[in-house]
Amino acid sequence: xxxxxxxxxxxxxxxxxxxxxxxxxxxxxxxxxxxxxxxxxxxxxxxxxxxxxxxxxxxxxxxxxxxxxxxxxxxxxxxxxxxxxxxxxxxxxxxxxxxxxxxxxxxxxxxxxxxxxxxxxxxxxxxxxxxxxxxxxxxxxxxxxxxxxxxxxxxxxxxxxxxxxxxxxxxxxxxxxxxxxxxxxxxxxxxxxxxxxxxxxxxxxxxxxxxxxxxxxxxxxxxxxxxxxxxxxxxxxxxxxxxxxxxxxxxxxx
Amino acid sequence: xxxxxxxxxxxxxxxxxxxxxxxxxxxxxxxxxxxxxxxxxxxxxxxxxxxxxxxxxxxxxxxxxxxxxxxxxxxxxxxxxxxxxxxxxxxxxxxxxxxxxxxxxxxxxxxxxxxxxxxxxxxxxxxxxxxxxxxxxxxxxxxxxxxxxxxxxxxxxxxxxxxxxxxxxxxxxxxxxxxxxxxxxxxxxxxxxxxxxxxxxxxxxxxxxxxxxxxxxxxxxxxxxxxxxxxxxxxxxxxxxxxxxxxxxxxxxxxxxxxxxxxxxxxxxxxxxxxxxxxxxxxxxxxxxxxxxxxxxxxxxxxxxxxxxxxxxxxxxxxxxxxxxxxxxxxxxxx
Amino acid sequence: xxxxxxxxxxxxxxxxxxxxxxxxxxxxxxxxxxxxxxxxxxxxxxxxxxxxxxxxxxxxxxxxxxxxxxxxxxxxxxxxxxxxxxxxxxxxxxxxxxxxxxxxxxxxxxxxxxxxxxxxxxxxxxxxxxxxxxxxxxxxxxxxxxxxxxxxxxxxxxxxxxxxxxxxxxxxxxxxxxxxxxxxxxxxxxxxxxxxxxxxxxxxxxxxxxxxxxxxxxxxxxxxxxxxxxxxxxxxxxxxxxxxxxxxxxxxxxxxxxxxxxxxxxxxxxxxxxxxxxxxxxxxxx
Lengths: 254, 335, 286
Prior knowledge:
The complex is a heterotrimer of chains A (254), B (335) and C (286). By secondary structure, chain A is of the alpha/beta class. Chain A has helices at 43-51, 73-78, 96-107, 122-134, 150-163, 180-191, 206-212, 230-235, 237-242, 250-253; strands at 3-14, 17-23, 26-28, 32-36, 58-63, 66-67, 81-83, 168-172, 198-202, 215-220, 223-229. Chain A is built from 10 helices and 11 strands. Chain A has a 6-stranded mixed beta sheet with strand order 7-8-9-4-10-11. In chain A, strands 1, 2, 3, 5 and 6 form a 5-stranded antiparallel beta sheet that branches. Chain B is mainly alpha-helical and 335 residues long. Chain B has helices at residues 3-8, 11-21, 27-42, 47-70, 78-95, 99-121, 126-146, 148-151, 176-197, 200-210, 212-217, 222-248, 258-271, 278-296, 301-315, 317-320. In chain B, α13 (258-271) crosses α14 (278-296). Chain B binds chain C through residues 67, 73, 75, 119-120, 123-128, 130-132, 134-135, 138-139, 142-143, 146, 258, 262, 265-266, 269, 299-300, 302-303, 305-310, 312-314, 334-335, and chain C through 26, 32, 80, 83-84, 86-95, 97-106, 108-109, 217, 220-221, 224-225, 227-228, 258, 261-262, 265, 268-269, 272-273, 276-277, 284-286.
């Protein structure tokens, strides 16, 4: 079992506020790991630190054994570390097909090609077609993103991450804001990812967490509270106590 | 592509069809350019005005590349225009080189300046960008002013005679050759730009402009993209300036003046940014307006231009071009 | 050499008075007001008209110029600026350039394009030499006025209720209005004072900087550099930036006359390369 993503005493302070407190977490290759915790626990901050959107106040981040603490965002993506955003970060005036096409062309390093039209690379467009199919967005391929309903935008958000062919994928609340009936689409898309892709998932939806993850890390007040397998966490009384008001009886999830 | 046809096609074919549509050059575009170039051979006169217009359009398109595609508001685009103008004028005057070579030299020099200033430009925030663009143009103006032994200072550089194009086509006094030359250069550069904006690079610019955060999350080096298109925009502006110097045989400090930067910004506001044709529409409207206003109040037409800018912004671009909305409340018209 | 320093400080302080209104506007309304120079020009021309045509003494003309320009600012804020606040950068730039062009053309039409000369009272002209340093009386006057203004501004900001309301509004307009602070009032009065200060600066600087219709366009870059380098979150930031700029500019023009005019651009480039968000600002802007 090799460790793919690892943090070493990672901390982030904003003035007097410590958002991330000495977090040392490791994710193994091919893991299906979830990061849970009450609101304000610092989950998104951790993702932002891992992806380079925020610079840590202390500590290190290692990707495949390489120290990426100082590496800029786009370079981490090139190294295979991809994330989705909790609030959709899409391109309002582009169509899903266009957004995916750009994603794939960037992935393959064609970002500076100036000759042929983007839409005329047959293999690229084929791949766009298959991602659109996977995300059930084929019929909306030529619709401007800004007029798509929220659920479809969310699918596109995940589709962009899939198209980037990540080796490590960080999902920030992929089902956030998606109506109950459409959640299973998201679940299925995420579940269909290849086995060797390492996935770290932030979620509040416990159904999704316990059906998806085999290892769970619990973050409270910016610090790593406890880590363990699905079974261990479900039965841990301290975790239940931390989630005041959350419905979570151990027997449901064993 | 209607739904029923789409359903009949395989996903792959459907996407191929969609993709071919992206940035497709339409027949009426080509027709437009044929007419524009054909005018050089068919029209009996008016070439000096048309030449001016062609150069203005090229300058506007060069700013569109920067403003509409990189999202950089530049108040000093005249820097590249002026640099190109002086470069071409000096090369012609002292070395008598072929006009096309002069264009290439001007483009390269302007591109170099663009590249250098893009280093500062992409790092800072709004105010920094504004200052850098303004500052570079002002700096260049001062340099040109001080180096009057080279540039002719406030009087300008005269005695610029052009070698015949391709060694045989002379520049005539009626401007027919000048216009043909300018419109052909414009057409070629425009079509190149059309190809550029639908290429992977060009599409990535849309992505960078619409959501830089997500663009970086796709692995795009955002600043480098912006710097690249800024350099290209600078090169285009340099060619426009060179054309002016070559076709009028003259270059003065006016080519670096602030009003040039402001005018071309207004042109894009009128015509719209981000689709390349805004420069054409805007330039035509602007020229017409300028002639009309200047004939009324020759010295103070700047006042009306200023007023137009204020009105456009306060009332809102969308609202302004739809007079029927003027009497409706609450259209929320931001340009 | 100390004389150069003295002259530079005077110049810098003048720049500060001219630019501080711009800094506050940028910090408060997030608005890039390129027409700021036009207010300065207005103040200068008003003073010239008052002293030369109406025979009002210089010292009396100064506060009148301040008030008149402040009023002008208030009127424009209420009628025009307020509609442009939320709009994007391009629109703000276009709007303020439009205003500037209108102002420049109007002044040219009414007052002519030639440079205006301000008749200073007797006791302000001339210079004395104190301890080997050449002290121009007018420059000394400027320094004194500006120092008083800086102290007054600092006191207003930190000691008065208006000051705390202003600081709250800069920090977070929505939260501030949620606390019952009348944001509109804060905006209009701040804008008025900022424009008034610009007008005062224009009046003071007419003699030193030269006054003609191209004033706003010529000096806009100076104001922008002061604000960009000094930041918009403090008073001391722009003050230090203005002093820096003033000293370097005067020293540069004296010691290396040929490239003197480029010093400002060099300062701008160097400081931006070192700290793109401004030398004295801790706040990263959008």
